[in-house]
TrEMBL record:
It holds the Pfam family Phage_integrase. Residues 115-292 form the Tyr recombinase domain. One of its GO terms (molecular function) is DNA binding. Residues 9-94 form the Core-binding (CB) domain. It comes from Candidatus Beckwithbacteria bacterium RBG_13_42_9. GO terms for biological process: DNA integration; DNA recombination. It comes from the Bacteria. Keywords: DNA integration, DNA recombination, DNA-binding. Coiled coil: none annotated. Belongs to the 'phage' integrase family. This is Tyrosine recombinase XerC.
Amino acid sequence: MAENTTIDKKLVLAQEQFVHYLQNLGRASATILAYGNDIKQLCAFLVKRGKTEANQVDVEDIKTLQAELTTQGYTTMTVARKLNSIKTFFRFLVKEGVIVANPTQSVKQPKYQLNPPRILSKMEYRALRDVCRDDLRIYAIVELFLQTGVRISELANLALDDVQDNLLYVKAYESHPVRDIPLNKACKQAIDQWLEIRPKSHSKSLFITKTGKPFQVRNIRTSIDRYLKLADIKGAKVNDLRHTFIAHQLKAGVPLVLVSKLVGHKRLSTTEKYLELLKDNAKSDNTQLKEL
């Protein structure tokens, strides 16, 4: 097979071209970042073994790296994710004609059990509200998570004009289409209260810091984690507020297709998995969203 000269044999350069390939596919920025870091880690490992070109890599290199990651304390799930990144990278190299044989083809993924999402009970999400009630910015953020099920990245990217009357407008990004989510009275009131004390700023971001800069994902995560701890809610993280919205809407009988559309799931099967967590799933359809 003739080798494709557009993709470099040098692993470090091929890694950069792989990232561009993922960007052209429209993969999520978080996915691209994770893949890029995983392949950088692979390249660093291979350099220590005296291998700098793709055609020098064999199955023993991959198996040794897999064992080393486990020894270093990475969880089975993380090792599996990193191995998936590496497999995707070498499939890319085969596809582009850089290498003929894929050294990862016979390497099996480690088996692991995925923990189910943490669903907050009514008592828990009320307790979370209580502890952050005086922090109007975080209170509005909590309400948005619980009442709309938006992703943390989507919430961080919300602009002032994305709140229109009783609708939340989530702009299209990467491979996710635009969507509108109804805002109930409690959520709209929380946003309005935040806007009344929001610092004056040239920033168009809905949520900003005291100095007028956009409130970043890391700021949101840190703040929510702190309030979850204050509310004595064990084993929960910020993404679980989104999970809580999904589960409680399904439990209230809101149609699966509607919930899936509102939260931006690409596949209906992703939403269906939440039904397994519900012991008394409502059978009747209810198009009215439940207010948490």
